[in-house]
Amino acid sequence: MNRICPSCFGLVKAKNADGPCDACRTLPANVKVNSNSNMFYRQEREDFLNSRRNDAVLFAYSGGLDSTVALSQLIEECKSRSITVIPFTIDYGFKGKETWKNISQVIDFLHQNDKYFVYDISSESVSILASPSAKNESMKVFDFYKSCVKEGVLPCGAMCNSIIDWAFQRILKNYNDEYLITGGDTPKRNTKGIYSIFWETHGFTVVRAGAAFGNTKNKNRQYILEHNIPWNDPGCGGYDTDCLLPGAVFYALVQGRAEHSLEETAASFPVLMEYFSERVRLGVIERNDALESLLHYDLPSLESIREIDELCGR
Q1: Per residue in 32-59, pLDDT tens?
Q2: Could you tell me which CATH class the domain 38-233 is placed in?
Q3: What are the boundaries of each domain within the chain?
Q4: Which of 3, 112, 169, 277 is the most buried (most CB within 10 A)?
């Protein structure tokens, strides 16, 4: 197995065997390895919110931990600027009962009921990477995700983004806006090669609020407790806290076995290595916490497994 980067969990190429991985070595000057504290992001956040005074902003609320904390923080920041926050959730059919319960409780707790809406795309037909086995086939969104579970394919990444971004485009068009705020916890490299809270994608700009507020996984858990926010871990498993899909696929592929070596994870689930290495590198997750997650998978609860079986007709 290739050597693991001492700073994150990226794989180190043979020519750099004694140093960090390429991702750590090539970080822009405005980013420090294993640290997410950066005044640049705060200034970006302030400039953006000040530009939207007396206006409204759209927030894509997934119902997960990061998204919940970012929404709460955003609402507080927007009050002094007379900015209306419009939160919404994309329904693709696999959020899960516990996630919907979290969403309902949090929206009520934050007094957003009069502005919040659900955008249901589960019955919409899509042809963008529609099926793992037949990518040009047009099918309903719900059926696409069901096929991923049945075929043991993680939709996370390009396949899922193409569908969700398509829905985002339609919502932004309805509101005549080009900016969408999410709970994204990592900054993204912009067109100038600098890490930023702004991420230009598919004709609109995502503002990654988790990164803008300097949030980390540990800070988010503490924030929930300190502010008495009625959010509970839905037991989805995988590496998510708002979707049944990743945990269900992981559970099937590992046959319910939670413990794995780092070598096994790197070989079988590079998406996990990429997810955790990026967040360790950028200071969002502590390295020891990430290592624990890579060695002992967060498998879904029995309730989540039963729910995914019901949804997939198994």
Answers
A1: 888 887 778 999 999 999 999 999 999 9
A2: alpha beta
A3: 38-233
A4: 277
Rounded distance between C-alpha atoms, residue 28 and residue 151, angstroms: 39
Distance CA 163, CA 17 (A): 39
pLDDT digits (tens, 9 = 90+) for 199-242: 998 889 999 999 999 999 999 999 999 999 999 999 999 888 99
Structure token pair of residue 7: 């700073």
- What would the two tokens of residue 247 be? 């945990």
> Which amino acid is present at 18?
D
123 and 95 Cβ atoms separated by less than 8 Å: no
pTM: 0.94
Q: What six digits make up the tokens of 192?
A: 């100038």
109, 230 in Cβ contact below 8 A? yes
Residue 114: burial class (beta carbons within 10 Å; 0-12, 13-18, 19+)? exposed
* 46 Cβ contact partners less than 8 Å away, ≥ 6 residues apart: none
Label the pairing between strands 188-189 and 195-196. antiparallel
Q: Give residue 193's identity as a one-letter amino acid code.
A: G
Strand ranges for 192-239 from DSSP E: 195-196, 198-201, 204-208
Number of other CB atoms surrounding residue 245 within 10 Å: 28
Look at residues 87, 70, 54, 39 and name the one whose alpha carbon lies nearest to residue 224: 70
